[in-house]
Specification:
Elements (H helix, E strand, L loop, with lengths): L1 E2 L18 H11 L24 H7 L4 H14 L2 H6 L13 E3 L10 E4 L19 H6 L3 H17 L4 E2 L23 H16 L4 E7 L12 E3 L2 H8 L1 H8 L5 E4 L3 E2 L2 E2 L5 H10 L5 E3 L10 H6 L14 H6 L5 H17 L17 H14 L1 E5 L12 E5 L24 H6 L5 E4 L5 H9 L2 E7 L24 H11 L3 E6 L7 H4 L4 E4 L7 H9 L29 E3 L5 H8 L16 E9 L2 E2 L4 E10 L5 E12 L9 E10 L4 E9 L5 E3 L4 E3 L4 E7 L7 E7 L1
Parallel strand pairs: 3-4, 4-5, 5-7, 6-8, 6-17, 7-10, 12-13, 12-14, 14-15, 15-16, 19-27
Antiparallel strand pairs: 1-25, 2-3, 8-9, 11-16, 18-20, 20-23, 21-22, 21-26, 24-25, 26-27
Bound molecules: beta-D-glucopyranose.
The site of beta-D-glucopyranose has 7 residues, from loops.
Amino acid sequence: MSHAHPPPSPTRRTHHAPRLPALALGLLALAAAGCEPADAPSDAGVRHTPLPFSPTDATRAYCGDADDDAIEGQITALLVELTLEGKIGMMHGAAGAVVDGVWLVDGVPGLGIPGLHLRDGPRGVSAFSGARATAFPVGALRGATFDPELEARVGAAIAREARSAGADVLLAPTMNILRHPRWGRAQETYSEDVHHLGTMAVAFIEGVQSEGVIASAKHFAANSIEDSRHSVDVRIDERTLREVYLPHFRRAVVEGRVGSVMTAYNRVNGLYCDLQGHLVHEILEQEWGFSGFVESDWYLGTHGAADSVLAGLDLEMPASSRFRRLEAEVRSGGLSEDAIDDSVRRILRAQLCHGLDRHSPVRDASVRESPAHLALAREVARRGIVLLRNEGAALPFGADVRRIALLGRNARAESIGDSGSSAVRPTDVVTALEGLQARAGVQVDEVERLDAAGEALVRAADAVVVVTGLGPDDEGEGDIGAGDRETLALPEGEVALIRTVAALNPRVVVVVEAGSAVLTSAFEDDVEGLLFAFYPGAQGGHAIADLLFGDTSPSGRLPFSIPESEADLPPFDSRADVVEYGFFHGYRHLAHEGRRPRHAFGEGLSYTRFTHADLVLAPPEADPDGVVEATLSVENVGRVRGTETVQLYVSALGSRVVRAPSDLRAFAQVTLEPGERRAVTMRVEVADLAFWNDARRAFEVERLDYEVRVGAHAGDPGQTARFRVR
Ligand code: BGC
């Protein structure tokens, strides 16, 4: 069966004249009094009469609880009032630099339109104008929580802080697929997996927008290289685009009702994203019904004027450069004023549906870094840090650990992420050293050199902690950060350091801080414990100590695979002008190639053990638009309370197209006391199992048997069961 999509449609915006609701007509008539007739030329001083507009299902959904009829009518009235110049003035940023910490887009104060006040970003309020704010753990760590409710709380907290810093649009989430771990901005996004990424991004968006702040899903699309981000042409076939690079953005629109979308800098199949009518106008707007505004990425993200507008770009940021030509293009007949109206309507709809006219942000520094927000940052870090190795019960440290030798390049590092646009400046950062020092009754010997004295400290310690990994000089955003990584290996000297201390002390725990995978094969077998801490944010040092000492059992699960070697991954060339994005990356690639990762996607240990049993699928046969529920029982068979994440992977058996061996289609989390057992149910939407049929230009669910595998990670044989799509 196939899900019909609209037939091939023009990649350019066209304008129809739908029915006009009574309220809008009334407002229109009021506002239009004294105006020129509908077909008046767009000369200076002569107002253009907007096309009538009625709300659609998509615009209604976008507006949520707001009175969309009234709002669309109000917009129509405003379009009547506004001059061409006034409208274009709302389609670009007002200044090339931040004003009082925010990027501005003009409104029309006299007509009750507040304009937009935009600010980064994905891990907290940006450092602009010296604002201090809570540095939450980076997106990769938050992905590792596998906990959308927690992520919604983070979104809401960042939004409250953003409002308190004058913003009503948050430039987040970064929700590009983590295609390769050398990508400099890997830390900002949640995952290499499309289902997991979509779930976490939707949660964040809902959290942000629940506080009256507009979220921006970025960067649309296929943006996952920094060094060549302004020029690289990502070549990608339609099926890969539809199944791997777009579904999470669709969910941001359809489920998250995201207020705005930011185009990416890169090209896709030869066209810059702001000129990509197929991606923006056809898919985002027409197919998915996105009804908010599309903004460019900053400074070099707009490549056309009329062409960009017709492709679907509404807002050039942060100032008018290309869009300076728009007025002349309309006056010369190169672009219809209706196209301008369409963009302005989207920009106004976002402001009015999100109530920016009713509650403007109130600056209040006391909202930022509040005790509740700092506690949340610590809770999230505890929940996301992943335990990857624990030999001989080296962890948690008990009463027998009174003296710790601490080493490694990140022991004193403020591990809050890169120096790009997502940078946040907190008042205080708890480093790993400070987190350990804060433990009562524990002596921390910092070992700076492994000379005779240093070796003696390592030997004498009850346990050794090596905090290593990367920082802002190693990976980050292009231009304003370090860009893409050169290698997946740890920085020079760190592996040798780990191996040396491992020969001196039998209880060595390594803590790796990085935005995504770092190769661990060269040292892992020599040490007893391994924690992957990402960039754990301003409270990260406390969270690391909390986990090392077992205040809580680790529950983080890797949101990416850690390969044995970089050769196991698809190629990554951050300087190429043209790159091919194939259908496989991450765990799907490793499984397809038959390569075992060092650590699988979804993997993570805890201080207890869980068993899974009695997997049942219902119903055993489903329709292509149906739902199959998988239920199993999960038991905590260890000695401490813990949180388990069960993951559901699906394989299409005998598909007629190339598929990944299996794909994550659902996950669920349960916290259990020792000895406690509970049933967990997950839903699989059968439509999510569809492949993109290029010939039909539609998704198609194959009538086949599907195998469901539920386990603790992508490589876990787990339990299996089958259902049939009839
Ligand atoms: C980044 C965006 C960011 C924008 C504004 C750009 O360089 O790619 O993610 O939101 O700057 O700071």
